[in-house]
Amino acid sequence: MRAVIQRVSSAEVTADEGRRSGIGRGLLILLGVAPGDGERETAWMSRKIAALRIFNDPDGKMNLSLTDTGGDALVVSQFTLYGDASRGNRPGFTGSAGFEDARPVYEAFVTAITGELGKPVKTGWYGAEMQVSLVNDGPVTLIIDSPQHS
User: Which of 17, 29, 76, 108 reaches 20 to 30 Å from 132, CA-CA?
Assistant: First the structure.
């Protein structure tokens, strides 16, 4: 499982038919699912993200987590995080789990991060064409990979 985490002042995702979902201060989480990802990766990633100390404390040091700040989270599925452009100019996506296999893992992650934060998270719409806008705070952006399958 791979996540791109962006600390944001605000973030919003829109899709067709006027659908909107957005947050204020918190984290935008772009989530990619690899073949074989499951409960172990979901639990690990949700704990890791909720506990990441990437928000400033009163002294201006990155010492607080999303849990500490009570900030919001917006989770958007993004299979392209596993895109491979090492050969040619057109990326391949064999490193990403298939559409139907990734969906329950994505949904389980949303449930797990909701539990870690103790409050609902906002989401995009799995499989939809979406537009994401954000105000990156810092800027702070991290790429996190779950431990390899064993």
Answer: 108
